[in-house]
Amino acid sequence: AGRFGVRMSVVLTVAPTGPVASKTDNPDLPTQPEEIATAVQQAYEAGAAVAHIHLRDESDRPTANLSIARRTLDLIAERCPILVQLSTGVGLDVPFEDRAALVELRPRMATLNPCTMSFGTAEFRNPYRQVRELARRMLDLGVKPELEIYDTGHLDACLRLRDEGLLGDGPLQFSLVLGVAGGMAATPDNLVTMVRRLPEGSRWQVIAIGRANLTLTAMGLALGGNARAGLEDCLYLRKGELSPGNLPLVERAVRLVRDLDSTVANVEEAESLLALPR
Ligand code: KMH
Ligand code: ZN
C-alpha cells in the first residue's frame, strides 16, 4: 500500500496540541485559541498543509466546547488557508457525544477513533455503535475521516465501517499510531506489518508517540507515507531538549521530506491526495 517508488508529494500535518500534555511539561505548548492559531500559521508557512486540532478551555483542560472550537477555526482561517482536521478524540474525560458534535462545525477533516482502549492509565471510550453513527454523520456532512489505528484490530474495525458503506468512496486516510500505552508498541516491525495490511491505494501517516517519534516518522516517509509533526506527539526535539514550540518540529519534518528527495504538498495538492470531499 502507499506510494512506495512513486514520487508523490508528502502531506505534512501539524499537531500543535494534544489531549494530555500541559504547559508544565512544555511551556511553549499552545493551548488557547490565539496561541494555537499562531502555531498553525507558522507551521503552514513552513510547509504543513493540514492542522490537527485539539482545544483547551480557559484552565487548559481538553474541551469540545463549540464556541472555543468555532473561535479557533475562525482565527486559523483568518491567518492561513490550511486544511483543518478537528480531533474527535478531544480528551479522555470528554463524553463521546460532545466529541462527536464537533463535526457539526464542518471541518474539512476530523479524526475517527474506531475502538475503546486503555490509554496510559485511563480509558479511551469509543463504543462501536457511536463510532458508526459518527462515521455516518461525517459522510453526510462531507467531513473526511482520518482513521486512527492504535492496534491491529482497529484496522479491521475500520474495514467493517468501510464495508458498511460509512467511509465514502475515495481512498481511506489512516494514522498508524505507535507507542500509546494500551496500543501497539512503537517498533519498526509493527509499522511494516500495519502498512502491509492497509487496503490498496490508502493514504497514511505515522504518529509515533514520544522517543521513537523521529525515527518512525523517517521510516514512514521511506515507506511512502505522509508525516505528522508537533508537540501533541513529542515534546522534545531530542533527548533532554524540549522543543521551543511546534515550528522546530515542523521544520525538521520538512527537511526530512526534502532530504529524501520528495516535496511537501501544498494545500491544493493535499486536498487532492487525501481526496477531500467538495
Ligand atoms: N493523540 C494521538 C495518540 C485524535 O486526536 O483523535 C492520536 C490522535 C487522535 O491524535
Ligand atoms: Zn489528536
Task: Please give a structural write-up.
The protein is α/β, with parallel strands linked by helices and 278 residues long. It has one domain (12-273): Aldolase class I (TIM Barrel), CATH 3.20.20. The chain is built from nine helices and 14 strands. A hairpin with a 2-residue loop joins strand 7 (117-119) and strand 8. The chain is globular, with a radius of gyration of 17 Å. The structure holds (5S)-5-amino-3-OXO-hexanoic acid and zinc ion (ZN). (5S)-5-amino-3-OXO-hexanoic acid (KMH) binds at residues 18, 52, 87-89, 111, 113, 148, 177, 180, 207, 209, 232. Keywords: Metal-binding, Transferase, Zinc. GO terms for molecular function: 3-keto-5-aminohexanoate cleavage activity; metal ion binding. Its cofactor is Zn(2+).
Mean pLDDT comes to 96
CA-based gyration radius? 17 Å
- Looking at the overall shape, the CATH architecture is Alpha-Beta Barrel
In the CATH hierarchy, what is the class? Answer: Alpha Beta
**How many helices?**
9
Which regions contain 5 or more consecutive residues with pLDDT less than 50? none
Number of strands: 14
Please tag this protein with its features.
binds (5S)-5-amino-3-OXO-hexanoic acid, binds zinc ion, alpha/beta, TIM Barrel, 8-stranded parallel beta barrel, 9 helices, 19% strand, metal ion binding, 278 residues, single chain
Short description:
This protein is α/β, with parallel strands linked by helices and 278 residues long. The chain has nine helices and 14 strands.
